[in-house]
Amino acid sequence: MRAPSDELPIRFDNVSFAVRDMRAIAELAWSTGGSGTTVLLGPNGAGKTTLLRLAMGLIRPTAGRVTWGGRENVPPTRRAFLFQRPAMLRRSAAGNLHYALAAAGVPRAERNARTATLLAQVGLEGFGERPARQLSGGEQQRLALARALARDPAVLFLDEPTASLDPASTKSIEDIVRAVALRGVRVVMSTHDLGQARRLADEAVLMHRGRFVETGKADTFFDTPRTVEARRFLNGDLLI
């Protein structure tokens, strides 16, 4: 278990986010901290990615405020974000991690050992000298996850981390996410895969049109959803 981060809890106070006349997030109140995995569910356009970007601090709300440990505009020293399609640097796998470790302020003398640990953590032992852009899609995603973990985050945001991966690669990513959560990292991830949500979630959040439709413990949400919208979504019906 890691030391608590002064960036937690992350709190949304009546947060809205709009681009021109399109509201992606609408007057949202939300807080996350502690340990465990929160899975964001909902149809395309529900606001899941926007929520993750706001929580990371990549974008600012157009109304309301986001705070980290009770403060606004806090540098993301203990937050990390894994994009759905992360870009690989034109370097080796180890070079990608060295770059991330340097950006995180890890002393040069420690980077080789940390790189080896991170590669092992994501099942890429022996891949350090391979060009990152020549790795398979699943290997690149694991390397991107290792880059995110180079920040030693207290909270890890994952945006559809297995959307384009085959079942074996998906299982590898899920295994890493479980291990990371067990180490005390707060994980908040979006997914369209209900099976994955059942496997990983401690808390489930269903979003629609920028709002929370239903939140709760994952087993309760999946077994006895309270709202009509949640029941429709779990049955595979469209939310309109």
Q: What secondary-structure arrangement, pairings included, does this model have?
A:
Layout: E1 10-19, E2 22-32, E3 36-41, H1 48-56, E4 63-68, E5 79-82, H2 93-103, H3 108-121, H4 137-149, E6 155-159, H5 167-182, E7 186-190, H6 194-200, E8 203-208, E9 211-217, H7 218-223, H8 228-234
Parallel strand pairs: 3-7, 3-8, 5-6, 6-7
Antiparallel strand pairs: 1-2, 1-4, 8-9
Helix pairs in contact: 2-3, 2-4, 4-5
Descriptive labels:
240 residues, globular, Rossmann fold, alpha/beta, 6-stranded mixed β-sheet
Outline the structure in words:
By secondary structure, this protein is of the alpha/beta class. The protein has a domain at 10-83 and 153-234: 3-Layer(aba) Sandwich (Rossmann fold). It has 8 helices and 9 strands. The strands form 2 sheets. Strands 5-6-7-3-8-9 form a 6-stranded mixed beta sheet, with helices on both faces. Strand 6, helix 5 (167-182) and strand 7 form a beta-alpha-beta unit. Helix 2 packs across helix 3 (108-121), helix 2 runs parallel beside helix 4 (137-149) and helix 4 packs parallel to helix 5. The protein is globular. The model has no long low-confidence stretch (mean pLDDT 94).
